[in-house]
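Worked example 3 (structure in, sequence out).
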């Protein structure tokens, strides 16, 4: 057994000090440091934070590699790179490309999923298929020529690897036949995004089976006092929401409001592109040229693309720019996404019996160690 001492242990409802976190491949408990069992291997957090491993529900690439490359090497590179950001599990995310490319990417992730449970990288928890069932008017950085109408048969074919699917509900039939079929026949979480739906359509789609909202505020109808749009539906329904917390995609002044309205339904994501982890410059995303400058990525026509955010930095961005307690900020990047995926009984918090997915950080949430199932996978 191992014991982490000298840290501020971030639990789901508080931060504990003067305690030790005990673990094997599972969390064994939290005890006063004076009560550590004999024979434990000691790991000193040196005054930093001890937190659950982070879970990213939406990430397209990292270190120059794109999920849609459809190559094992790309997924391995992304997975290993994410360890330095404290990400212990993630959903490799496809985008609106031709179906052959999407299928190849999903099949590679399907092949690697079991291996990822023990490799030296972040675990593949499934995939997020962002598109191709989206609205052309809200396509953002997605390619219009590959947009299709919602197809339940495709989702069902890959329901073992797709954990979330982003679609535009107004592109479904009037009675949301695809949404209802996916909900009835699979456990896939349907998320509305890249959508031009009005408030009434969005709310009706939630009643039909939509449970989540992709990068809230971005690529959807905005909130206005006579037209609440998808944003209004997201805030006024029980759907969980994800937010790109780089301070650019959503202004930091909104973080407090989002927490007050959504609470444990709020998830932090990166929507990170292949440029993540690399210097400023020109890169590609789904075959399109991306220009990365500062914290912003754009297509050549100026359209804002995803981010280059590291999820641990996102947690600190919100904590530094809001009144939200740090433990709740951590929940938004661990327990809350685990709950969206239905794996909160085994991941997402430092509770006895859960997987020992642990991060140790410094005082500003920079990653010092990343531990997965009790094994140190990364050290700064």
């Amino acid at each position: 057994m191992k014991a982490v001492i000298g840290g501020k242990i971030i639990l789901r409802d508080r931060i504990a000090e003067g305690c030790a976190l005990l673990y094997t491949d599972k969390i064994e408990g939290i005890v006063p440091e004076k009560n550590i069992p004999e024979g434990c291997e000691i790991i000193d957090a040196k005054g930093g934070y001890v937190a659950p491993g982070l879970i990213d529900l939406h990430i397209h690439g990292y270190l120059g590699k794109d999920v849609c490359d459809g190559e094992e090497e790309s997924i391995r590179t992304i997975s290993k790179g994410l360890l330095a950001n404290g990400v212990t599990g993630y959903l490799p995310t496809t985008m609106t490309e031709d179906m052959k490319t999407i299928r190849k990417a999903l099949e590679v992730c399907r092949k690697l999923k079991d291996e990822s449970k023990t490799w030296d990288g972040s675990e593949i928890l499934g995939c997020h298929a962002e598109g191709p069932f989206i609205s052309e008017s809200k396509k953002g950085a997605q390619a219009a020529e590959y947009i299709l109408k919602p197809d339940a048969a495709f989702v069902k074919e890959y329901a073992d690897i797709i954990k979330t699917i982003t679609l535009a509900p107004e592109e479904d039939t009037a009675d949301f036949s695809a949404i209802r079929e996916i909900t009835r026949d699979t456990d896939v979480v349907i998320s509305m995004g890249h959508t031009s739906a009005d408030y009434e359509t969005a709310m009706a789609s939630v009643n039909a089976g939509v449970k989540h909202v992709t990068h809230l505020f971005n690529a959807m109808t905005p909130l206005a006092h006579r037209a609440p749009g998808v944003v209004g539906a997201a805030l006024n329904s029980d759907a969980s929401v994800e937010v790109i917390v780089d301070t650019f995609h959503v202004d930091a002044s909104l973080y407090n409001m989002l927490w007050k309205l959504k609470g444990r339904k709020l998830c932090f994501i990166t929507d990170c592109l292949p440029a993540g982890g690399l210097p400023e410059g020109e890169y590609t995303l789904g075959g399109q040229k991306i220009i990365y400058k500062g914290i912003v990525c754009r297509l050549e026509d100026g359209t804002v693309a995803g981010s280059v955010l590291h999820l641990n930095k996102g947690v600190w961005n919100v904590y530094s720019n809001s009144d939200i307690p740090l433990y709740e900020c951590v929940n938004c990047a661990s327990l809350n996404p685990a709950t969206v995926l239905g794996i909160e009984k085994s991941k997402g918090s430092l509770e006895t019996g859960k997987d020992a997915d642990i991060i140790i950080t410094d005082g500003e949430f920079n990653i010092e160690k990343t531990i997965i199932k009790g094994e140190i996978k990364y050290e700064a």
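Notes: The first strand starts at residue 2 and ends at 5. Residues 2-49+361-379 form a domain with the Urease, subunit C; domain 1 fold (CATH 2.30.40.10).
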